Every structure is written in structure tokens, then in C-alpha cells.
Amino acid sequence: MSELVLYSNPRSRGRIARWMLEELGQPYSVHYLDYGTTMKSPDYLAINPMGKVPALVHAKAVVTETAAICAYLALTFPEAGLGPQNDVERALFLRWMFFAAGPLEAAVTARSLKCEPPKDKAGTVGYGTYEDALQTLEVALSAGPYITGERFTAADVYVGAHVAWGLQWATIETRPAFEAYRDRVVARPAYIRATELDNAALVP
Q: What pTM did the predictor assign?
């Protein structure tokens, strides 16, 4: 079986992809790249013309964008049990993975950069308002222990990372449903292993 190769940086969204790889249980290697230098090298731009991480290479397949990496791994290695297993799970898996990658991240980024649209223009952006996005997330996370219901999936890696980081950096306001969900996902052994590995690679 072809090796999974992750291009990353320990101060990037590549941490989410490593967490997913640890959950997967397949052999993989990590190549760390530096911002502004090796991320912009011709060799890496041939893999990801955006010149950013993470990127995953698996034989002839190249996957960029963190949510896509998580979904690709879940679907390519179904034996890991991290993908949806029925129509209801599939709908929730896709719905909340795309919600976190689109409306949620856009709303949180706009708030943190102080560039939210005026209230009367909220309908022109995909997330409406920051409050809309957080309320929607809270409803979803209050419905069950995980984003697709009773079972942990790759969608929880992606959504869970957004919630954990948002609470850590105060870009997502503290709510009991968010804290309870965060506590569940970060207690997973794969999350702990991935965090330790990337923390060890941080340059002081």
C-alpha cells in the first residue's frame, strides 16, 4: 500500500490532518515546511499551487484543504470506521463538514479581523451573521455526543478542531455545548498523540 505523506507545519491547520492520520491508524510520514521559504518552493508549488499547508499525497492522489483531507481519508480507508455508514450519517457528515469549512470559518474569521458586513447586508454573505453561525453550531452539538450522532467520525476531527481552537483563542464564544464537545474530542488518544508530535516539532 502506498504511503501517506503529509506536508505540514506544526503551527498550521496541518495539525488537524495529523490528528486525522493518527485516528486512521495507517503508516504515514510528515514533511514540515516553513512559511515563505519551502512552502513557496517550486517542488511544493507543484503539489499545492497555493503554497500553503496541509497537503496530502497518497500514491498519485494529491489532496489539499483540510476538510477534504479528512473526508478523503475516511472514504479511502473505510475499515477505520471514520466515515458515514448510512444515509443519515452521510447527510450529517457532509452537512457539518461543509458548514465548518464554509460558514463557520468565514464567520469566525470575519469577526476576528473586524470585517463583518453591516447587519442589513448579512444576507449577502454565506454565513449570515456570526451569531447565526454559532447558534447553528450550538444546535447541532446539542443533538448528540458527536456531530453525526452517537458515533465519532472524521467530521468530528474537523469540527472538533474548529471548536477547540476557537475556545482556546476566544474566537468562538464559550457555551456549555461547545465546552462539553471540545472535552470529548480532545480526550481521544489520537488527538493527544498528534498534539504531542506536533508540539515536539515546534521551534522555540
A: 0.96
